[in-house]
Write a structure and sequence with these properties.
349 residues; alpha/beta; 7-stranded parallel sheet; two-stranded antiparallel ribbon
Length: 349
Amino acid sequence: MTNRRDLPGSPYLAAATGRKPHRIPVWFMRQAGRSLPEYRALRAQHSMMEACFDAEVICEVTLQPVRRHDVDAAILFSDIVVPLRGAEIDLDIVPDVGPVIAAPVRTAADVAALKPLDPQRIQPVSDAVALLVAALGEVPLIGFAGAPFTLASYLVEGGPSRHHARTKAMMLAEPDSWHALMEKLTDLTTGFLRVQLDAGVDAVQVFDSWAGALSLPDYCSYVQPHSARVFAALADDGVPMTHFGVGTGELLGAMSAAGATVVGVDWRTSLCDAAARVKSGTALQGNLDPAVLLAGWPVVERAARAVVDDGRRAVDAGAAGHIFNLGHGVLPDTDPGVLTELVSLVHTL
């Protein structure tokens, strides 16, 4: 186990571990990139996949929002399909489309042919974490990975999907192949997070972005046991572990039971309601609607204050802490100045 940095002054780590922070911690999903002009300037020189495999670019993009916004945590700049590339899967991240898989995984033979993660193929990620730990000072670094179900959806569909129909069909019609696929992807997710933890990240977040497409019974039967194995494998590291999905209000209890110490909540569910659904002693993260940031400062301020009040009520109702965030990632059209002002506001509340 890596020697962790001692960051006693971090509001993020305090709120995530049930201690009282000196201010409400705030960071944003997809803060590294998307809306920042300095990110776009850098990306003009690199494709997304190139950027994800260049340690110095990863480091620079990860640091940009910390410099600009004074957020309370950095999140590693990467993509959830990076470990798939580390397992020799032929894919690309296509502008304005997303990850596209050259040969989708749809049969038992396809599943059997999948290779394990080769840590050497993702060495730039490890190198970037080491650079960031040295550069961030007192700001914690969050590592992340896609959850097995969300990786499976990309692999089976061949790319982004609105309905995840092929994925669900495989899951329901071919459960043996499905669970074999999820076993391999669980190992992949765990291995990708292990590389980041061994390099020194201070916390991790598992994005099950598309789990909200599932009913609660299907989630519990076909997904939750595999996600639980990821968290169990990393529990001894003693770092905050966040579990997040979109449209997962009905799944929050099951997602919490998988073993995360922090549960991310999207804007459809109040933090107070989420506190009643997750297991006792869990911290909550969220949950301003990212679209609010496009509506002008008076609307942003009102909505942010409402989220902070809701977070206080959630803590009073038993949540271990509240980390202010969006209910999903920063939208590309967001004015970076609004994000900076929002951080400043939350820090005064």
